[in-house]
Amino acid sequence: MIVPGGSGGMNAWDELAELFADDAGAVAAVPRLARHWELAQGSPEAGRLTAVEGAAAVRRQYAESLELLRLAEGFLAEGHAAVRYADIGSGGGWPGLVVACARPGWEVHLVEPLQKRARFLDTAARELGCGNVTVHAARAEEAGRGPLRETCALVTARAVAELRVVLEYTAPLAAVGGIIALPKGSRLEDELAAAGAAMAALGCELAGVAPMRPAVSETVRVAVFRKAAPCPAAYPRRPGVPERRPLGS
Ligand SMILES: C[S@@+](CC[C@H](N)C(=O)[O-])C[C@H]1O[C@@H](n2cnc3c(N)ncnc32)[C@H](O)[C@@H]1O
């Protein structure tokens, strides 16, 4: 468990490095992640990026992002040294910019429609020396019809929408055979039960549900989908439609 820093003992960033000690990329990224946190807190252009503070932020934002990466990689095909990866609704950069820091060899695309957040992501990526990041100031429904369509080995989205909606945001970007990894809380079973029609329409299969290690989160599990078939041209629907009329509703 990550505990608050303070006088003596390990601070939360040291604890983060220890939690991911077997991931050299994550350990090497920790100083840049700490710098990202400073930038996020001090960014007037990005507005209020996260409600959590201090050591809790290190666990909620950074450990959960790295854990999502760890679990998703378990589902990626062998030989994924260079991966095109997209994060939808990146907000202040969780998990997309965290992954970019931990996997500098990956091509990372952050999709975030709010201009001030997209600007923050772009500035932060440059400040952190993440030359592998492209920020798309666009909605998922737009990005899913652009050059990224069906090209990504991995797509994530954290805290963006309910499952059947976020599948329509993410599935069009995943290559056939690619992985969509979505962290979810206690409503996962209900959301999965409601997502059957969306999965079938979008060419996705449930590959597994992977709980985070308790030291990272007692509650978050990652629903992992494999893109089994090409996404029909009808998806994603026009901006706003997936949320207003979720598939299967
Ligand atoms: C609650 S925030 C989560 C941000 C970040 N993923 C995190 O976990 O801290 C949701 C984000 O999704 C973005 N978002 C909402 N609808 C979207 C859409 N249709 N396409 C892409 N991003 C969207 C919002 O602008 C916002 O930044």
Automatic annotation (TrEMBL):
It is found in: Cytoplasm. S-adenosyl-L-methionine binds at G89, A140, E141, R158. Keywords: Cytoplasm, Methyltransferase, rRNA processing, S-adenosyl-L-methionine, Transferase. The keyword Methyltransferase applies. The keyword Cytoplasm applies. Its EC number is 2.1.1.-. Belongs to the methyltransferase superfamily. RNA methyltransferase RsmG family. Specifically methylates the N7 position of a guanine in 16S rRNA. This is Ribosomal RNA small subunit methyltransferase G. It comes from Tepidiforma flava.
